[in-house]
Amino acid sequence: MIRAVFLTHTAAPSGAELATLRLLTELRRGGVVDPSVLLTAAGPLVDRLRARRIPVTVCGNAFDSTALTVAGSGPLRLLTGATGLIRLGARLGAIVRSDGADVVVAQSTKALLMGAVAARRAGVPLIWQVHDRVSGEYFGRILAVALRVLGWVTAHGVVANSRSTLRTLYTRGRVAVIAYPGVEPVANPSRVPQREPGAVRIAMVGRLTPWKGQEVLLRALSLLRHRPAAVHLVGGTFFGEQDYRAELDRTVAELGLPVEFVGHVDDPGCYFAQADIAVHCSVIAEPFGQVVVEAMAAGCAVVAADAGGPTEIVHHDIDGILVPPGDPVALAAALDRLIADPALRTRLSAAARERSADFGIAATAQAVTGLLEQVTGRRAVRAR
Ligand code: GLC
Asked: What range defines the domain where residue 291 resides?
């Protein structure tokens, strides 16, 4: 068995952490990798991991996890944040060593910095599992280059959540795989047939944060010729994004839109199951976009932004519709076309369900296991 410690700095149930939760559950089931989690903050993820019988250690809850935040961080703030992470890394190294781990897998950029120190202390290789595109548009040009270099220097291997993410990294001389964050089989795949135009329900699932583009959807809704019966915005604010939520509230009131804010839910599946159309409209390239696959698996007709991960998932006009990111007019045109045409929605939804089967969690676990075997030089003997 390969003992792998997955290191992450946040226990908020946001996309990357939920992807990790599913991956570790599947790794544990597979029996080749023995996964555990080392967290530097307490939060809802801890109980969810434990419920799936994955060992969790929380270390350093005094640590300010907002240090090194991307938005509006000045050089001094970054430096203090980085120093804190390095110090914490040294403490984590002791835990990794006493755990007898074979490898550390860093789940975020902050975890990469801590993990680099921790893995070195423990004398084990480091893997960087990358959930974000390490690009200028997300991190700013200078930080993006610094992170790429840090990753290249410190990590023996890289797991990227899409081709698009992998392209933003330096991987020369390193082992690299793409492991699409897979979904778990839908528990109850039954759903109501696509509704008539006047009764259409739309769902958008995602953290309420400017780059996920909820504002673009609201603008698009105000331009529609065919008004939907209901629009559900599912998602919480985790990382100091309350101002954005207030802004969205104002837009909804100003434009008189039929929008309901659902907040964070652990399982957004039932919102997809009840929606005819699911919208994804991130304004910068989405690294992967698990919600796109989840919506497809639930049989929604999906509209997604044509950049990053969704372009690797959706075949335009076959199993979904791709629209230019950050363009409310184009999104409105796509929505009007879909709302008006239940037959089109039915065709897309059937194809979407089929396509979603290409993104199972077993394949993700297999790709990650292969990389861990390669990097640790251990190949487990599998039962035949
Ligand atoms: C991050 C990315 C998202 C991806 C998820 C899982 O949340 O923003 O695109 O689906 O990680 O890798």
From this structure: 197-358
